[in-house]
């Protein structure tokens, strides 16, 4: 965020247009939060009301409600304004419960780990 | 300040911003600030299927610290101008 009036005051980037809007926030660890922006600061730290974490694994998704959050700016990657008239998610995706999505996440993590360890074994043995 | 000025001149152009998390977003450059935070309009994600979260997002704010590249077509970049500006900054700084 820039200080208004500093340098060219007619051109500045600010989160001032976002309070009250429903937003998607991408975080540095790859997570997605949705919520209403209530406040922000010069470091892009934000206050998100009615926040929920949207977990997507393949074609499954789940919104885990989180309530009121303050997110430190250094973790913020992107803040996107959701167009309420557009589809939030592709139609082929299905909503599942928290338990199911956590299971799917674990399965995905295990599969990645297994792939990684197999690769290490192959490399060690010199197999292409 | 050099790239802040450079991006100010690019406002209104269609650019692609590639982030450090490999996400690439195409959109019209709406504004930029001293931290090189970028605001894009009419955004669409390159490789939309990989990032279903962003389907309904049409404009966004990108924190400057997470940008990896802003690829530009070489014919649209006045490299001599940039080179001169850099020399001037180096002398003045």
TrEMBL record, chain A:
The protein's assembly and partners: Component of the heptameric LSM1-LSM7 complex that forms a seven-membered ring structure with a donut shape.
Q: Name one GO molecular function term.
A: mRNA binding
Q: Which SMART domains match?
A: Sm
Name the keywords, alphabetized: Cytoplasm, mRNA processing, Ribonucleoprotein, RNA-binding
Q: Which residues form the Sm domain?
A: 13-81
Q: What does this protein do?
A: Component of the cytoplasmic LSM1-LSM7 complex which is involved in mRNA degradation by promoting decapping and leading to accurate 5'-3' mRNA decay. LSM1A and LSM1B are essential for the formation of the cytoplasmic LSM1-LSM7 complex which regulates developmental gene expression by the decapping of specific development-related transcripts. Required for P-body formation during heat stress.
Cited Pfam families: LSM (PF01423)
Q: Which SUPFAM superfamilies match?
A: Sm-like ribonucleoproteins
- Which domain of life does the protein's organism represent? Eukaryota
The record's similarity note reads: Belongs to the snRNP Sm proteins family.
Q: Name one GO cellular component term.
A: P-body
What's the encoding gene here?
Answer: LSM1
Gene Ontology BP annotations: cold acclimation; deadenylation-dependent decapping of nuclear-transcribed mRNA; hyperosmotic salinity response; mRNA processing
The protein's name is U6 snRNA-associated Sm-like protein LSm1
Protein localization: Cytoplasm; Cytoplasm, P-body
TrEMBL record, chain B:
Any idea which UniProt keywords this protein has? mRNA processing, mRNA splicing, Nucleus, Ribonucleoprotein, RNA-binding, Spliceosome
Q: What Gene Ontology terms describe what this protein does at the molecular function level? A: RNA binding
Which InterPro entries does the annotation name? LSM_dom_sf, Sm, Sm_dom_euk/arc, U6_snRNA_Lsm2
* Top-level lineage group: Eukaryota
Q: What is its main location?
A: nucleus
Q: Name a single GO biological process.
A: mRNA splicing, via spliceosome
Q: Cellular component terms, GO, for this chain's entry?
A: catalytic step 2 spliceosome; Lsm1-7-Pat1 complex; P-body; precatalytic spliceosome; U4/U6 x U5 tri-snRNP complex; U6 snRNP
Kindly list the places in or outside the cell where this protein is found, as annotated in its UniProt entry: Nucleus
Q: Which CDD domains match?
A: LSm2
Which ranges carry the Sm domain? 2-76
Q: Give the protein family.
A: Belongs to the snRNP Sm proteins family.
UniProt function note: Component of LSM protein complexes, which are involved in RNA processing.
Record-given protein name: Sm-like protein LSM2
Q: Which organism is it from?
A: Gossypium raimondii (Peruvian cotton)
